[in-house]
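lol so apparently i was supposed to do this last week
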Amino acid sequence: MLKSPYAGGHLEVIVGPMFSGKSEELIRRINRAVIARQQVAVFKPALDDRYHADAVASHAGRSLDALPVPDAAAVRAVLNGEGSLLSAGPARPDVVGIDEAQFFGPELIPLVLELADQGVRVILAGLDLDFRAEPFGVMPELLARAESVEKLTAICTVCGAPATRSQRLIGGQPARFDDPVVLVGAQESYEARCRLHHDPGR
Ligand code: ADP
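anyway here it is w/ adenosine-5'-diphosphate bound
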């Protein structure tokens, strides 16, 4: 086998709005690493349990085994082979994938930098912008520190143009800018929108 081109460590970030194919792209890259006989470990925040509790699932139905974790400390513990999660994956993977990275706290940053410094290829997928089109949590710093960044677009549900934003709708109407992120009992949904058709609710 040729030496991996990522043997020196690498941080890759895949971003875009909802429905832009971030999960599909993460799945594609991880599958190719598996074909190259690399050891992989994939994580996702435990709060996202759409379709499967133990997989990265795309809106188009493709999926990949992933370990749900409450925070970055749990990722570190698994990779250090600590606790009962040890059986979940190889202790020293060549490739670490993390989906929905925007939901992790700031402690994700030192962890992924440390992994990349140790020679691991780290692939992160997540929303660059929240529903107000404001930078989302840890993502700006991860984008700045990555060796490679891929910005994907979805299709605007209003006009069919490339969509860079996620429209939050509550009862079919644009959410207000200062609406709480979790609204108990509300009927909420999201649509991909271009800049023109995105309403941040101000
Ligand atoms: P993400 O992880 O970015 O939310 P996924 O990989 O889960 O995206 O899903 C992408 C898939 O969603 C597309 O391949 C397509 O089948 C589907 N899809 C549904 N609505 C849209 C839309 N408005 N624009 C683009 N793709 C869409």
